[in-house]
Amino acid sequence: MKRREALTALAGGAIVWGAAGSIHAADAAGDAGPIGGRLKQGVTRGVFPPSFSLEDCCRAAAALGARGFDFIDNPTDWPLLKRYGLTPSMFRLDYGGGLSTGGRSPPGPPGWGAVALPASRGQFLQAVHQGIDTAAAHGLPNLFVGAGSRDSVSSEEGAANAVQFFNAVKSHAEDKGVTLCMELLNSKGIDSGKNYLFDHIDWGVGVLSTVNSPRVRILYDIFHAQLMEGNIVQNLRDHIQWIGHIHLGGVPGRHQLDDSQELNYHFIAKSIADLGFTGFVTHEWHPAPGADALQVLRQSMQVMAV
């Protein structure tokens, strides 16, 4: 389906998906229209067709029932998201000035942007303080931070550095009502850098339980967690109190949530909802080659609708 035809269907407030993967406007009936459920689903730029403008993405996300949009990091874009009822749900300091590229390497000197490395206790700590103020001023709930690489520090040294970093900023985050979210990534170099420190849930829980702040939480990326240790639902059950935000992606390939990947995301979604999780559950994947992006986004959101 062409971009204009897709957007015309979305603007009509109801979407019907045909057997061949096309969409067309129709009266609201059956599974057409916004997708509900107990979870607050969010999106990222990569789930949409590359030809879509940011407003196209917002219009489609709202029509499908999404409530958040991660990694739209330019404050000038936030009014547009809010106009469509979308929360800028994860603010990342690494890339300001436009749409997030999805990159993981922050600008600046080595270690800048990584809470577990000594270099971050200077310039990046100051930037996080400023980011907290910016997020609070615009009503953004979450600020992204990364842990860093174990190339220059051991796991134990990195954990101690992260505790020191968070202890230096947590009171400010608590006062402003902004949650710092440290992401779990794989350390194999698959859609991430190699030797990442926070590649198992226990490392992050150890840091957070020492810091013990309601405004320092884990961004639990299920794609990365599956690559490193699996046991997704049990880890969610054991550690949900430390998790503030969740990212979704099919394994292998980081594609849509369907029967081409190994995880039972509908069961995962029910488990998350049954735990009373109130944060955002965000689709961070890219459609498989040849897939209709809007069709597989709707289908993936339906998988998570419980």
Molecular structure report:
The longest helix is centred in the middle third of the chain and has 22 residues. This protein has an eight-stranded parallel β-barrel, surrounded by five helices. Strands 1-2 form a two-stranded antiparallel sheet. It has 306 residues and is α/β, with parallel strands linked by helices. Strand 6, helix 5 and strand 7 form a beta-alpha-beta unit. The protein has one domain: TIM Barrel (Alpha-Beta Barrel), CATH 3.20.20.150. The chain is built from ten helices and ten strands. About 12% of the residues have low confidence.
- Regions with little confidence, pLDDT below 50 for 5+ residues: 11-30, 95-111
Radius of gyration, taken over Cα atoms and rounded to an integer in Å: 19 Å
What's the number of structural domains?
1
Tell me the overall shape: globular
End-to-end CA span: 29 Å
